[in-house]
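Hey, can you fold this one?
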Amino acid sequence: MITSRRASRFIRRFAGPGEGSGIVCFKFWQLVPAGGCPYQCAYCFLQTTPWFRFNPDQLYGLVYTNVDDMLRELDAWMEDDVPKMMIVGELQDGLVFDRAYKKVTGRPLTHWLVPKFSAQKRHRLIFLTKSTEIDHALELPPSKQVVFSWSVNSEYVSSRWEHGAPDPAARFEAAERIKAAGWPIRFRLDPMVPYSDWESGYGETIRQINRLNPEMVTLGALRATSRTSLRSAAKRNGRDDSIFDFLAEERDPSGFKYRIPFRQQVSLFRFALRRIRANIVPALCKEDSALWKELGLPFRGCHCLLGNSDAVVAERLNENKDQQSAALRVALKKRLVQIDINSEPTRTAVGE
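Sure. Predicted structure:
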């Protein structure tokens, strides 16, 4: 395990999709208490991020030691009156470093963070993980302000492309223990892959999700910003790159990601949505609006948000309105210029 002081800020915002993008995603908040991940998932996007390309030894785990700086940032962030969600697990596994944090800083990561969120009713914290490191979390009293979320998949996908990670059965067991202790849970069924027997595999995964009755399930399919770069990185890191054979040749309609073919996505997601219990909120992760429309899925929030009324949703909508207004102004200006150019000058009659 590598340790270091973090020089940049601990709290970041996801940059979000570009201006005018049809991708349904938002500038959510993320905490970076560590970097990398000891698991060896073939599809992990961290393999192609500049930091880990130039510091490959840190890809498998980097724990930051300047906890006081992190907590000061967090205290300032929590002073905001606008309710927000903070995610731990976007640039690292959210729980796998809990024990390492105790060894390095004297307390598990959960013990540094959870009490701050438990002590108030405005903001929520969510840990996204594949880990089963829950013993230290279970030492704390449960709070509705803290959510534990597991990334899960079918047994086949996990055994082939998620090497080193606990198998889905172990993740479900950890989630069950956390929920039994009184904590809210969520799941991300992501990335879904259309392998030959996917209906059987995902049918069983969804049965386990329904059994645990989480507050939300977010679906995602295999995707890559650059399929050639991610495939090359997976090969370089000794991971099975065959998963990228499922990606289409073209990007999604918004040009955001390479994905599996659209109709296959629709089939995978419809299969899941028809089987997820009606009381569980369904969502999609970083998918194009065309897919939401095709599925007839209303937006009720997604994994990294408080819900559909989260402030970052209104922020994105306002940005879109501003962009649309700006586009209309530009179009109108062009039209007026064209009219001015094409119009004949006014003729004045003799004697007027």
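The first strand starts at residue 2 and ends at 4. Let me know if you want another pass with a different chain boundary.
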